[in-house]
Amino acid sequence: MNKYAEITGWGKCLPPAVMTNDDLATFLDTSDEWIVSRTGISERRVSHVGTSKLATIAAKNALAAADLDPASIDLIIVGTCTPDEIIPNVASAVQRDIGAKDAAAFDLNAACSSFLYAMHMATQAIRTGAHQRVLLIGAERLTRILDWTKRESAVLFGDGAGAMVLQASDKETGLLASHISCDADARDVLSLDFGLSFDRFGFDGIMQFDFVGQEIFKRAVKGMNAAVENVFQQTGLTTDDIDALIPHQANKRLIDYLGKLCKVPSEKTVINIQKYGNTSSATLPIAFAEAADNGTIKPGDKIMSAVFGGGLTCGAGLIQWGERVTPKQDNQLQLEPGDKSALELIRPLHEQTAAAWRKREV
């Protein structure tokens, strides 16, 4: 039996189409100053392809970094709340498209907490000996489900995917301790309803996105801080032992507040929300991939991660990075550009939703 699940590969996929805050201001009552001051976001990516394609590119990059034959993977977990279709799952498309024919494959939806939830589950699967090589992916195409007439939520999100490879190891590395939970009493403060709960005959063209910002912020800070404290208690470590904080990228204010609560200095906190917005389950693996590729993560670093998402799901984990921070093969495969700009992809969605709201009000 192997005690640890070592991170041996990492990769990401960011769609090439960039939507700036100034782009948003062409059809929303907002401005770059308004968005940056409240969220820390300057731009986000808009995908012209489905979630499974984003996931597949990120997976190929992670496998390249690990220099692994896809056929050797025995489990694929995709964290997502924006699958291409209800059935079949995204993970099965990834399994087919990378050639991991012997891998079990399933999706996990804990919203923005999905990747850490998946890492928690995959680590346990490796520790019990049930699996040896696991491919974890967080992938989202959130721009297709937003109500683009609502400024408060539309400015927050973007598309993207990130991935990791976990391998059974005797080295003390990988996810050493974790805690996941769910504050279900408040699950309605962050929800997305497709028409009448998947009643396609009652769908009037509006994806009802409920986002109670202040309540989410309050519960997110409380939940993530409690999860981090739980992990510290499990390990006997303190903030002085942590080399980096890599949190879910939901809001710059939230990240800063979490850093203060956890007593982690700002220079140890990885932040990339300014470039990508909130990509939900993809924020964590994208941040890890970038931190490894740009040298922020050093061999042997101890990294604390914290997440919060719809449900209301929550979690934290302490990751011990291994000795290798350089990919074994090039892990910078990118998505082919589409023929439309980000604004050209989003404007029709805004117009359709605005028309649907007008019809409903009549």
Automatic annotation (TrEMBL):
Active-site residues per Swiss-Prot or TrEMBL entry: C112, H248, N278
Lineage: superkingdom: Bacteria
UniProt subcellular location: Cytoplasm
Main subcellular location of this protein, as a coarse class: cytoplasm
Domain spans labelled Beta-ketoacyl-[acyl-carrier-protein] synthase III C-terminal: 233-321
One BP annotation, GO: fatty acid biosynthetic process
Matches recorded under InterPro entries: ACP_syn_III_C, ACP_syn_III_N, FabH, Thiolase-like
All residue ranges annotated as the Beta-ketoacyl-[acyl-carrier-protein] synthase III N-terminal domain in the record: 106-183
Chain positions covered by the region annotation ACP-binding: 249-253
Family: Belongs to the thiolase-like superfamily. FabH family.
Quaternary structure and interacting proteins, as annotated: Homodimer.
Taxonomic classification: Bacteria, Pseudomonadati, Pseudomonadota, Gammaproteobacteria, Alteromonadales
Enzyme class (EC, first level): transferase
Name of the protein described by the UniProt record: Beta-ketoacyl-[acyl-carrier-protein] synthase III
Chain coiled-coil ranges: none
Species for this entry: Idiomarina seosinensis
Pathway field: Lipid metabolism; fatty acid biosynthesis
